[in-house]
């Protein structure tokens, strides 16, 4: 499979690239800087995305909103819409979005980001990721999309290949902890690219 990976040098993007190549897939990395052997493009630039996506089987959008105190939702939604338009122009239908955990439900109608204990540091990013999910749900019906939320906690760790897959609700273990390593998140994402079991919906992965 030929995969265009937008955001290839981030914590998750690097691991998705490694996992996909490990399984024999061809990965074209894209970053804003064009460093480390990646192609240079802004995800919000539909024409640039289209030119890079041509001839690929799938696109993975793994960009994060800024955490520098600036407005987060606008740039992330622009990246999402640019990517959607680029896929259409290139004739590529398959899209997997690296999403956030904040929009996952902890109770009916209650999102994780709306709980009192959610860290203020990550709130703008979480709300932005939730807006991106809403845009994908509303505007990507003509594409084969999947949005994958991690657990509440995600960081570099071990690749075990053993985790649970859920839907719109936050997954926790017996002790109430919600966690996934970035390596196992990448396993789940490439699994979905290969199996196409969650087209047109959001899923989440956790231990």
Automatic annotation (TrEMBL):
Residues 7-194 form the NAD(P)-binding domain. It comes from the Bacteria. InterPro entries: NAD(P)-bd_dom, NAD(P)-bd_dom_sf, Polyketide_Oxido-like. Gene3D superfamilies: NAD(P)-binding Rossmann-like Domain. Pfam families: NAD_binding_10. SUPFAM superfamilies: NAD(P)-binding Rossmann-fold domains (SSF51735). This is NAD(P)H-binding protein.
């Amino acid at each position: 499979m030929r995969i265009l990976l937008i955001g290839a040098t981030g914590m998750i993007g690097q691991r998705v690239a490694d996992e996909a190549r490990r399984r024999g897939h061809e990965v074209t990395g894209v970053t804003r800087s064009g460093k480390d052997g990646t192609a240079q493009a802004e995800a919000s630039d539909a024409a640039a995305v289209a030119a890079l996506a041509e001839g690929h089987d799938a696109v993975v959008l793994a960009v994060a909103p800024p955490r520098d105190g600036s407005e987060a939702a606008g740039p992330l939604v622009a990246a999402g819409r640019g990517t959607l338009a680029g896929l259409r122009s290139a004739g590529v239908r398959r899209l997997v979005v690296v999403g956030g955990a904040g929009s996952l439900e902890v109770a009916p109608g209650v999102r994780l980001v709306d709980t009192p204990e959610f860290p203020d540091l990550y709130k703008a990013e979480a709300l932005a990721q939730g807006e991106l999910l809403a845009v994908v749900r509303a505007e990507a019906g003509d594409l084969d999309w999947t949005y994958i939320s991690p657990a509440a906690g995600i960081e570099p760790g071990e690749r075990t290949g053993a985790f649970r897959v859920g839907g719109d609700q936050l997954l926790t273990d017996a002790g109430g902890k919600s966690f996934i390593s970035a390596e196992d998140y990448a396993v789940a994402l490439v699994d979905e690219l290969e199996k196409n079991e969650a087209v047109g919906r959001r899923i989440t992965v956790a231990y």
